[in-house]
Amino acid sequence: MAGTAVAVLVFVVVAVALVGLAQAGGRFDIAFLTSVYIGRLLAVSTVQAAASTVLSLALGIPLALSLARRTAFPGRRLLLGLLATATVLPGIVVVFAVVAVYGRSGLVGTALRAAGIEPGGWLYGLPGILIAHVLLNAPFCARVMLRAFESTEPEAHRLAAQLGLTGRAVFLCLDWPVIRREVPALAALVFLLCFTSFATVLALGGGPDRATLEVAIYEALRLDADFARAASLSILQLAIGVVLAGAYAAGLRRTRELPFAGRPAPRADREIPALRTLDVVVLSLASLFIVPPLLSVAAGATSLAALRDPEVAQAVVTSLAFALAAAVLATGAAVLLALAATGRGRPPVAVGLVAYVQLAVPPFTLVAGLFVVLRPVLDTASMGPPMVVLVNALMALPFCVRLVEPPLRQSEERHGRVADMLGLAGLARLRLLHWPALRAPALASFAMAASLSLGDLGVVAFFGGPDLKTLPLLLYERLGAYRTDEAAALALLLALLVFGLALLAIRGGEARADAA
Amino acid sequence: MLTLRDLSVDYPGFAGRYTLSVPTGGLCAIVGPSGGGKTTLLSAIAGFEPISGGSLEVGGTSILDLPPARRPVTVLFQDYNLFPHLTVLQNVGLGLRPDLRLAPADTRRAEEALASVDLAGMGPRRPATLSGGERQRAALARALVMERPVLLLDEAFGPLDPGLRLEMLGLVDRLRRARGLTVVMSIHTPEDVVGVADSVAFVESGRVLLQDTPEAVFGSELEPVRRFMGRRGGQRH
User: Fold this and answer.
1) Which of B42, B49, B80, B100 best probes binding to A when mutated, by most A CB atoms within 10 angstroms?
2) How far is CA A434 from CA A4, A339, A409, B89, in A?
3) What does the alpha-carbon distance between residue A75 and residue A79 come to, in Å, rounded to a whole number?
4) Does B74 touch chain A (CB under 8 A)?
5) CB contact under 8 A, B47 and A415
6) Distance from CA of B204 to the nearest CA of A (A)
7) Cβ-Cβ contacts under 8 Å, A432 against chain B
8) Is residue B99 within 8 angstroms of chain A, CB to CB?
9) Backbone dihedral region of B58: left (phi > 0), alpha (psi from -120 to 50 degrees) or beta?
């Protein structure tokens, strides 16, 4: 019951936002939506997202295969740790890292100047966006694919080794099916993330001709206060989001629930000399791409003194308060949703759909819609904090559900009948049966939601101002003002906070694996 | 008296029509090929299956409309009978108070039940520190404190060693005689129940093909029984 209520509440919020937008937009502006401007915007976003996806997969899949083959080399654990770190870094921190390495006065720029070449402003625009997106998503792809490759049955590799299969045959027989199974969902997700990317494109886009729809909506709202345009753009974004989320959901149905990786099988193609060379090349190139930006974030340690600034302290407090509130909200809702989804009988449809809301409905659509509806009642300043918390919680909700639902389902499958027989219901069921299984995942969900909220530069960019500043917003401002030292220190602080929370989330996930 | 008359369970690809009767205090063993519907039969009695027809009575009263917790029935499953994070005593206590707010008298009863299955003093331990046989005995203790007249065992002793299995069967037999329990148990190894079971029901394809004394069922010339017992047509051992 409570879970269904949460699901319905989510849909009501979304519906209110959409209705608000539709009214603000007045008549639906077909002429605008079919204009050359929109066509160009979509074409540019599509090319950018497609290129980001292809490059992320092109780096991530070989990297995953090399890591699967080479299970023991010095620095493997460190590299895995760095991949995990890159995956959770907030977009605006990645922007800082990309500028620090590839920017005019960054590592590459300095090296070029030393060689007598004046570095141009090539970074701002498509190149910078692509580098940042690949830096965020290739490690993600590598981690997902590594886990998929490692979950191939040990018997298959034993058989392949016994048959003496060539490297090509091992790839075709064992790895290609995994790739075919996992990549559609992965590609759809990465494409969606890049297509709707906000922080990266806002900071590195270098002008209106490189905007994504997100950025265009933001500009319509924040710079031009043009609600009609924002509404039309949001509705377009929503339509595209629904299609892409559908593609992701369809792809996800092909993948399978991976068992919690026990010891991965020793791979059959480990001893093939040509592959040994290939792996050295792949691992070196990947490290060369991923490590310097992360080091540049770590280098912020040298300018930590720049953090002694009341504005920073205020931003830390604000960020943590928002993150805490969003995490509590998202985790509570996720537990209720998961309880509704795992109970006896068919789960309510609304509960299943909630997981895709965040993918299909862009945060700015929500913000813009709720802003329009609430404007007569609340002023912008007092609307900011609750809106940031609410929208961040909604954005984190699907991830939280995915963390708490499987252990709850397992607990229900194993013990549900005994509990039914004993008449264990309501709170007693939650306390005695589910909570022990749920404690670690709930903590993980809390940490995950907090870390997403902490790193988010989206909603807050719209509501932010002198009175409302979070760490990502402050970092964005410092980057824009070329206050490099302060930006470096802020990026490190933000990265450490987010990383700490992510570590907590991973621990929670592992505790769950141990208990299983 | 436990009576099933055409108790019907329907799934795509499976249709169970069960007719069975076990007198009060009787012990009936369910045998038959895997996938034949033994577990479904027990689940249907316990209230875990949607029923599409027929009748199910205990002591002449229909129990079809009762939820699992209110049926005069307890079940021992093959595994996951105990909650791993609760102590053995708490697990037994759940049979008395589903919210675990145990009064001192409840605790005493739970301890007595543990003693009656030879687990005296094991109350404070966690299920993980118990052997497989001990875990099933603890679950049996919980079934006893619930004081339900019908006890169902769903291959509850299947994973145990043969010696331990016979020991557990002996315990169940003793307890049902002492307390007048009606027992229905599905089993894997027919020879175990000769001398213990009053009757054996042979279940295949969702039907009780035959219910009779153990000797009569195991010696039956019915083709499915012969196949199940591994006897060639026409030959008798």
Assistant:
1) B80
2) 19, 9, 9, 19
3) 6
4) yes
5) no
6) 24
7) 83, 86, 94, 99-100
8) yes
9) beta
- Asked if the Cβ–Cβ distance from B98 to A421 is below 8 Å, we say no
B94, B106, B146, B152, best to mutate vs chain A, most A CBs in 10 Å: B94
Question: Which residue of A417, A425, A432 is in closest CB contact with B86?
Answer: A432
**SS3 (DSSP) at B119:** coil
Separation between Cα atoms, residue A322 and residue A71, nearest integer Å: 41
Mutate to test the interface with A, among B74, B81, B83 (most CBs of A within 10 A): B83
ipTM over 0.90: no
- Please state whether beta strands B2-11 and B73-76 pair in parallel, antiparallel, or not at all (unpaired): unpaired
d(CA A257, CA A217): 37
- Tell me how many residue pairs between chain A and chain B have CB atoms under 8 A apart: 51
Min Cα distance B168 → chain A (Å) is 20
Fold of B2-229: Rossmann fold (3.40.50)
Residue A330 in contact with residue A373, Cβ under 8 Å? no
**C-beta separation of A197 from A212 below 8 A:** yes
Residues B80, A415: C-beta atoms closer than 8 Å: yes
- List chain B pLDDT tens, one digit each, 237 residues: 999 999 999 988 899 999 999 999 999 999 999 889 999 999 999 988 889 999 999 999 999 999 888 899 999 988 888 888 889 999 999 888 888 888 999 999 999 999 999 999 999 999 999 998 999 999 999 999 998 999 999 988 887 888 888 889 999 999 999 999 999 999 988 888 888 899 999 999 999 999 999 999 999 999 999 999 888 755 544
Homologous superfamily of A1-31+308-516 in CATH? Answer: MetI-like (1.10.3720.10)
Q: What is the pTM of this model?
A: 0.76
What SS3 string covers A195-211? HCCCHHHHHHCCCHHHC
B14-22/B2-11 β-pairing: antiparallel
CATH architecture of A35-297: Orthogonal Bundle (1.10)
Q: Residue B77 and residue A422: Cβ atoms within 8 Å?
A: no
Beta strands in A56-206 (DSSP E): none
In angstroms, rounded to a whole number, what is the distance separating the alpha carbons of residues A416 and A337?
A: 17
Question: Computed from CA positions of residues B53, B54, B56, B61, in that sequence, does the dihedral angle turn out positive or negative?
Answer: positive
Strand order in the sheet with B150-154: B61-62, B53-58, B2-11, B14-22, B207-212, B199-204, B27-31, B182-186, B150-154, B73-76
Domain ranges of chain B: 2-229
Q: Could you tell me if residue A240 is left (phi over 0), alpha (psi between -120 and 50 degrees) or otherwise beta? A: alpha
Chain B hits for A433, Cβ within 8 Å: 83
| The two structure tokens encoding residue A467 | 């009175």
Chain A neighbors of B143, CB-CB under 8 A: none
CB contact under 8 A, A423 and B98: yes
Sorted by where each begins, the domain ranges of chain A are 1-31+308-516, 35-297
> Which residue has tokens 């753009």?
A233
The answer to whether B71 and B57 have CB atoms below 8 angstroms apart is no
Residue A147 burial class via C-beta count within 10 angstroms: exposed 0-12, middle 13-18, buried 19 and up: middle
Nearest-Cα distance to chain B for A277, in Å, is 48
Residues in chain A: 516
Q: Which residues are CB-contacts of A138 (< 8 A; sequence separation ≥ 6)?
A: A55, A56, A57, A59, A60, A63, A286, A289, A290
- Contact of A495 with A82, CB cutoff 8 Å: no
Q: How far apart are CA A77 and CA A83, in angstroms?
A: 10
B207 has which bridge partners?
A: B17, B204
